[in-house]
Design goal:
five-stranded antiparallel beta sheet; mainly beta; 211 residues; seven-stranded antiparallel beta sheet
Length: 211
């Protein structure tokens, strides 16, 4: 299950097997360095977004004198630059809602970032539609964008990336906590031998693993 409360002080090396740039787990959060380099926690490639979701509390890095100081929460396909999710940049006071192909999305939306109203982020797939949602508390959600689900959401080799980067300024951290712990169900594994989602109620399903 891709589900983590980041509460034991040790970043799970199996769950986050594709991480880079020296992230750590501290104070109940995954802490990803936000420097002029790139750092991230990235899960193994064994999940699906079909009839599923990823939801988490996000703590973006401070601007710290940078022109851009951003963190990204993305579900990645097996093709580079084909993904979906959020980018939060406090230096630009903006949030990006992306569904990218070739690292580009002509339909991306950029609402003004509100650290209270947008404290929690959720990307959800339901009946062929993707939903980008935000919440102040992980309970009441507001839809910020919808789009037809691309075929890749049904793949069973997706991964989750939480990355941070800044162009200048004071090094900082981007934080992530309560991953898929905002409602009952959690990220569920697919049953072996099934081509599609396992037999779990839609109201309780979150991002599922294939193992």
């Amino acid at each position: 299950m891709l589900r983590d409360d980041f509460a034991d002080g040790v970043l799970d090396p199996v769950l986050w097997s594709q991480s880079y740039g020296d992230p750590l787990e501290q104070g109940g959060r995954a802490q990803v360095p936000c420097t002029t380099g790139y750092a991230a926690i990235r899960s193994s490639s064994g999940y699906t977004l079909s009839w599923s979701q990823v939801a988490a509390r996000v703590h973006p890095p401070a601007a710290g004198g940078a022109s851009t100081a951003a963190c990204s929460l993305l579900v990645l396909s097996d093709v580079g630059g084909t993904d979906a999710g959020f980018l939060v940049d406090q230096a630009q006071n903006a949030m990006g809602l992306y569904l990218r192909v070739g690292y580009a999305d002509a339909g991306a939306l950029f609402p003004t970032f509100d650290p209270v109203a947008h404290a929690w982020l959720r990307l959800r797939e339901d009946a062929g539609v993707l939903y980008w949602e935000t919440s102040p508390d992980g309970l009441a959600w507001t839809v910020r964008r919808t789009a037809s689900s691309p075929a890749w959401v049904q793949q069973t080799d997706l991964s989750l990336l939480f990355e941070a980067h800044r162009d200048a300024g004071t090094p900082d951290f981007a934080g992530l906590d309560s991953l898929n712990i905002s409602r009952p169900g959690g990220m569920r594994p697919l049953q072996r031998g099934l081509a599609g989602p396992g037999p779990h109620p839609r109201a309780a399903a979150t991002v599922r693993g294939t193992g």
